[in-house]
TrEMBL record:
Name by which UniProt lists this protein: DUF2061 domain-containing protein
Keyword Transmembrane recorded: yes
Pfam families the UniProt entry points to: DUF2061
Transmembrane domains' residue ranges: 20-43
Residue intervals of the DUF2061 domain: 21-72
Keywords, sorted A to Z: Membrane, Transmembrane, Transmembrane helix
Source organism, top-level taxon: Archaea
């Protein structure tokens, strides 16, 4: 049985692509600052800390975007709105 036929995956994403991109960029910026700060505390060099932070965050940004898009298609636990107001789907 595939995930799509199990009724866990929604046919359409619950968020627009641009919303996911903005959320991803904002989140990764915060994480970049944290990563660079921690790396700087360990290595003691700002340039090395920036290199570590940038490399790690490039990989993590792509991973987060894909993960968010996958979860956007999963109906389980999501709230939907209808004539009777918000409700849990499962």
């Amino acid at each position: 049985m595939s995930l799509r036929s199990s009724s866990v995956l929604a046919g359409q994403p619950l968020q627009g692509r641009s919303r996911v991109i903005v959320k991803t960029v904002c989140y990764r910026f915060v994480m970049l600052c944290i990563t660079v700060t921690i790396a700087w505390l360990f290595v003691g060099d700002v340039g090395d800390a920036l290199n570590i932070g940038i490399a790690a965050n490039l990989v993590k940004t792509g991973t987060y975007y894909g993960y968010e898009r996958l979860w956007d298609r999963i109906e389980w636990g999501a709230r939907t709105t209808g004539a009777s107001g918000p409700r849990n789907t499962r």
